Protein: PDR/VanB family oxidoreductase
Amino acid sequence: MPRTRSVVLAAGAALLVRRAVRRRIAASPLWPMPALETPISGQGGRRVPSLRLAVAERAVPAEGVALLRLESPAGTPLPEWRPGAHLDLVLPSGLVRQYSLCGDPADRATYTVATRLIEDGRGGSREVHEQLREGAELVVRGPRNRFPLTEAPSYAFVAGGIGITPVLPMLRAVEAAGAEWRLLYGGRSRATMPFLDEIEKLGGERVTVVAEDEAGLPDTAAFLAGTGEGAAVYCCGPEPLMDAVATALPEGRTLHLERFTPGASTAQLGTFEVELRRTGRTLTVPAGRSVLATVRDELPNLSYSCEQGFCGTCQQRVLEGEIDHQDELLTDAERQDSMLICVSRCLGRKLVLDL
Structure:
């Protein structure tokens, strides 16, 4: 009997402990840290709709470029999108990468994306090229559009290499609408420039192709000088190309840029402090190191993915301090009290995070 009683007591105690743990976890998503009122940190802040899609077709539209057509395994129609939109691809390793939609928005059965292999990159493009074959399934978030095609009296497009992907649906749209447009398309060589044949057939003399191995770098200033007052200028490509377009932009034109790498910070890159309110620690973030990297020294299991300010995985609530936002994702409302700690920094001496 004493042995039976001990077993019963132990089982009862274990049940009480499990219930207490569940209550504690429910009270705080970062248990065992104390909970604050309505925390968002550690919960992946944003909730972007996701789909599980399969690779229906894989093609090579240019040297070093892989094109994927994605479809729903159930055959259900895909969410609508407009030119300039992109998808977040959650790769088999868990990495999240952003790729522009370059297919036909009227096609609700498939999404089309293309990516160039970056030999010295961070691994995302290599994973796409080596692992995403026909039949492979993956999670996709979006579509989202931070590069929308706006109404304008005329259009000028500048694309470099794989930067043609968000521009291609725009070209089709403005051509179908009978709008005035021109394109400057540059690349290392004609063989490395995807969709080149389609674009030249679509635009004829309105398309200027500059292959670096034949003619050097494109003359963005001369191209932009030929644009009309009120023209909308769209540019996507390497940072030097976008910088050249911004520098040469004539007055009276509107510039729209699509970046998939973080821009340079305009704030001081010096040292500042980050207080982790729930953890009870204050950390020093040195120049040249991200808040994310510094915080993960203290909280190694903190979620993150792209490290470029695009996916939103590392969004954290800011309780105090002035933020230097360097992301390409958060809305103005979200920027009031949160930040993406992979790229954004502090405009002052200290930030306080809900961590």
